[in-house]
Protein: Pentacotripeptide-repeat region of PRORP domain-containing protein
Organism: Polarella glacialis
Amino acid sequence: RALALSAEAREAGLLRPSTAAEAASGLCVYNAAVSACEKARLWDLALCLLAELRDEGLSPGVVTFSAAISACEKAQRWEWALELLGEMGACRVKPELITYNSAISACENGQRWRWVLWLLSRLRADGLMPDVVTYNTAISGCAAGQRWELALALVATMRSEGLRPNLITYCAGATACMLSGRWTETLGLVAAAKEDAVELDATTASVAMAASENSGLFAAAPDMLFGCQARVRDFPTANSTNNNNNINWTKR
């Protein structure tokens, strides 16, 4: 479908648009083609289409850029995602929250936690407010960078803004603490999840058990994990959990 829409976009662009209606129609075709490329993970074709529509005298809008950035995110091309975000500013196209979320996710996938936090600050500068997805991705980026202090600060900030942390939030935050050897903070986040009535899964429980084992507080694990639907025999060991540094919590 992506290739078919790409061909249609090229055909539609054989003649430069002479009216606003023709321009809008042509842009819609290109937007659909770029979106199809995003779903098919054809990031390079998405960028080619973006260049083509400009050659045809069309101006990409927020939908076009957002789809292209999402295509780069899915292909783990964080550099191109940032490049496109910069182009939006040059074109005076204001990014939307979904645009930033895709760019932040691209940087998180690339383990670029500094860029993740920079995008979070730029998002606010553009007058947007992060949502739970934004925070979860940012916390996951901090986990990959083993920046446990920043992960905890983000959890506290989202609470102060009236957002409710969910399982992904607590998983990412607890993992950031565990990978940094902060066992007490790890257990504190798992306990907070239980207090918030967040149902733990096997992964969260395994993080708690690893932290309990390493901190010498293993007796606390049964009470903390009471009611978890996951089975103890399914939990990985503390060592295997500590070696798993590439968990992508935002995709859960």
